[in-house]
């Protein structure tokens, strides 16, 4: 029987189904998009807003998935026409009030694969949900089911964020860690002495930790906002810089020819367009913004982890395996009845600090890529809400504090939350000619237009300076 008033976790999606909903669609170079480039420069984001309005107005069928890459927040985005990227808040992104590349999924990917600090986001989400469950009813009026739900949620948080063996252990100052460890230990002792007592802490006990992790998360979010404006990865950026410098150098050819052959200085003006265009391309590449991609639409290159997920989806599409793992039972009790957090802390007192769990819990073969097995298959979803009692009884025997399902754990969050082991050997950058996907945020489109216009202004300055120097160079006297 399901726990009253507590939403049950949805069945875990297969890799193929998850790819259909969560992976961004690949784009193609189209001549029509190139013809609309002037509109994107003069009215950035206008075409995206019209597309979002059209998608929002279209009738939705019951079978149609809630695809976040089709503009499900068109109404809200439409109301943010004049909002700048610096005004976008982290709370709005987490709440799902923006479209790609400003979704919770995009922010989570950035934390998982770029900064390796997804635990701060997961702790923030868990504490919000835990506080909501805790404040639902006074302590004297809680039903046994609600007490059990809070206890399971608290136990999962202890094993996830405070156990040394957890890949999502929080990185907090030692004084905060000692304080929360002592609080958790007191709850463990009280629960062992009187099992009928409530074996969990109030949300206020985590306030200091939350303030610290929220500050770290805000710093990561500022870096994330800088990344979303870029439409190219590092390799493409280096190529654009090389191409821009080469184009600028080609503009010197008319000047050199005129000097050597003693021709009219007017022929040197043929280098002006090359000096301007080469500077624009080079400055754009320095900011990881490819002018070619921009001219063909509001697009961005696929990231390395997205390429890997496409490979995973293609590999797993032929498999029909589908498992369901109980989220709240991810932290099962040990044989003597204690939680894995208590067992890990006792082990930590008797032994020296272990290596980080991200690298120590995965076998060496898990970090090698092959067509049969990919590290992304080991990603485990971190849920926010408990499953029903029937799901818990059916899957509790299979779950453990360190287990991972090949098809991923169930999730009820918009982004399908997961964590990425540090042992994953993903390239630092996508290939130069990697496919691109469409961006659906008018705010990002306006910010990207500003970058292109800034590069154009730099191009004008460099063109004037280079042109003045080249025109002043005298011809070679015979």
List the helices and strands and how they pair.
Layout: H1 15-22, H2 31-35, H3 37-42, H4 46-57, H5 74-78, H6 90-94, H7 104-115, H8 118-134, H9 144-162, H10 174-193, H11 207-228, H12 234-250, H13 253-261, H14 272-286, H15 291-295, E1 299-301, H16 304-316, H17 340-350, H18 357-360, E2 380-381, H19 389-395, E3 418-419, E4 436-438, H20 442-472
Antiparallel strand pairs: 1-4, 2-3
CATH superfamily of the largest domain: Regulator of G-protein Signalling 4, domain 2
pLDDT averaged residue by residue: 74
CATH arch. level architecture of the largest domain:
Orthogonal Bundle
Give a short account of the largest sheet.
Answer: 2 strands, antiparallel
Approximate strand percentage: under 5%
Q: In terms of structural class, how would the helical and strand content be classed?
A: mainly alpha
Query: How many strand elements?
Result: 4
N-to-C order of helices and strands:
HHHHHHHHHHHHHHHEHHHEHEEH
Total domain units:
2
Q: Any idea what the shape is?
A: elongated
Poorly predicted runs are: 1-21, 62-81, 320-338, 347-381, 383-415
Cα separation of the termini: 100 Å
Number of helices: 20
Main-sheet strand order equals: 1-4
CATH topology of the largest domain: Regulator of G-protein Signalling 4, domain 2
Helix % is: 40-55%
Name of the top-level CATH class of the largest domain: Mainly Alpha
CA gyration radius, whole angstroms: 27 Å
Domain RGS: 107-217
Protein name: RGS domain-containing protein
Transmembrane segments: 238-261, 273-296, 451-473
Organism: Rhodotorula graminis (strain WP1)
């Amino acid at each position: 029987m399901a726990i009253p008033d507590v939403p049950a976790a949805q069945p875990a999606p297969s890799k193929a189904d998850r790819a259909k909903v969560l992976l961004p669609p690949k784009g193609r170079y189209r001549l029509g998009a190139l013809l609309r480039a002037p509109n994107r420069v003069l009215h950035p984001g206008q075409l995206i807003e019209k597309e979002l309005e059209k998608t929002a107005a279209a009738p939705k069928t019951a079978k149609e998935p809630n695809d976040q890459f089709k503009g499900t927040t068109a109404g809200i985005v439409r109301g943010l026409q004049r909002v700048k990227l610096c005004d976008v808040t982290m709370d709005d992104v987490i709440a799902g009030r923006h479209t790609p590349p400003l979704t919770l999924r995009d922010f989570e990917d950035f934390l998982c694969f770029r900064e390796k600090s997804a635990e701060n986001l997961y702790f923030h989400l868990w504490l919000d949900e835990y506080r909501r469950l805790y404040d639902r009813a006074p302590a004297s009026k809680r039903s046994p089911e609600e007490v059990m739900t809070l206890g399971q949620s608290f136990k999962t948080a202890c094993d996830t964020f405070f156990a040394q063996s957890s890949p999502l252990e929080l990185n907090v100052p030692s004084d905060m860690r000692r304080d929360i460890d002592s609080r958790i230990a007191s709850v463990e002792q009280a629960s062992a002495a009187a099992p009928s007592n409530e074996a969990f802490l109030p949300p206020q006990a985590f306030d200091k930790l939350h303030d610290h992790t929220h500050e770290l998360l805000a710093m990561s979010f500022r870096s994330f906002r800088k990344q979303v404006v870029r439409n190219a990865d590092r390799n493409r950026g280096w190529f654009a810089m090389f191409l821009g410098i080469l184009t600028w150098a080609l503009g010197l050819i008319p000047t050199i020819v005129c000097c050597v052959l003693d021709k009219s200085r007017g022929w040197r003006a043929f280098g002006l367009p090359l000096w301007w265009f080469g500077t624009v391309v080079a400055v754009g590449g320095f900011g990881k913004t490819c002018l070619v991609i921009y001219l063909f639409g509001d697009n961005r290159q696929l990231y390395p982890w997205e390429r890997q997920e496409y490979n995973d989806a293609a590999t797993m599409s032929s498999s029909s395996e589908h498992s369901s793992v109980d989220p709240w039972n991810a932290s099962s009790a040990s044989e003597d009845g204690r939680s894995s957090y208590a067992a890990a802390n006792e082990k930590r007192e008797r032994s020296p600090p272990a290596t980080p769990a991200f690298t120590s819990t995965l076998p060496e073969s898990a970090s090698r890529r092959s067509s049969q097995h990919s590290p992304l298959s080991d990603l485990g979803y971190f849920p926010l809400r408990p499953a029903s009692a029937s799901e818990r009884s059916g899957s509790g025997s299979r779950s453990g504090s360190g287990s991972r399902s090949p098809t991923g754990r169930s999730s009820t969050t918009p982004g399908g939350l997961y964590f990425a082991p540090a042992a994953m050997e993903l390239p630092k950058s996508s290939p130069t000619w990697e496919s691109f996907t469409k961006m659906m945020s008018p705010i990002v489109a306006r910010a990207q237009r500003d970058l292109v216009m800034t590069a154009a202004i730099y191009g004008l300055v460099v063109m004037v300076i280079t042109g003045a120097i080249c025109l002043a160079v005298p011809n070679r006297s015979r």
